[in-house]
Amino acid sequence: MAATALNTLTADPAKREVYRYDTYAREGLRSFADVAELRRSHDFTFVVLKPDAIAGRRCELILGILRDEGWLPAAATTIRFDPLLTRELWRYQFNAASAQRIDVVDHLLGSGPALLVLLYDTRRPAWMPASVRLTAAKGSADPEAAQHSDLRTRIGRVNGLLNFIHTADDPADVIRELQLFSYQTGWDWCRGALSGSGPQAADWSQQTDPAHALLDTVHAAVPAHDLDVYAALSRLSEGTGRWASLAQRAGTSAQVGEWLAELRQGAMPDGAARWDVLTVATQWIDCNEHDVAPILPTSSAAAWRADTDERLLTEQEVESCRV
Fold it and tell me: pTM score, two decimals?
């Protein structure tokens, strides 16, 4: 890969260096270039509505807010997370995951299909890629760092893992992560939108929403759930078997270790009871190792330049990008 290939795709010098040697980024650049010009990666981003968004029936709310804020669904498909996809997608962040989070995350993300939606940004400033604007709007995965205007707050994020959505940080991540998804999905699902040979942006708001067309399918695969920890504990306690016994004898966050020990056994209940267990476990764990930083943290919108003089954005300019 040429040393300058990533210069227009990320504002993070550390990411440029790492991605020069990242298999998925390198392959993704070739794949994306076969579908569309690389500059198109500034116009598009994507959102993954994870299985918890489907269980919590947040999909229509999320898609509605995104549309209201200028991100139009251009294409959609379904994906399924497995342990390898999870670790490779977050390869440069998962090093900071706590052992407790590792115990839970595969059960959570493997609980059903996820909805992958390609988004066209109708409101991005000329200097800011669609993915960067969405990352700034999304807000932190950490509830303690949340702001009331964050998308994750507006969609009712429950805790650090039940936060419903994943997005790419910048165009380099759009390309790298679409490549990772492509091993399941191929590129045909989004080829028309990215290449401009499909419906144009002016038409997307008038056509059948490709994401909504898949909602019945994903809802049928994942039971609806309130994601309420107290209600989940009550339901489990009233049942029978190992999880009922656990809920009866270990009903406080101080006893989360017993829940994680059961999860490591790998035997989860079926149906809504699975989501009862996941709701309790995700509410009680510590998500991150203390004093361990991710290899590549989320880059700030302030790292992108507003003009050809490479002027750093002011705090006011960055705040104006939030929804």
Answer: 0.91
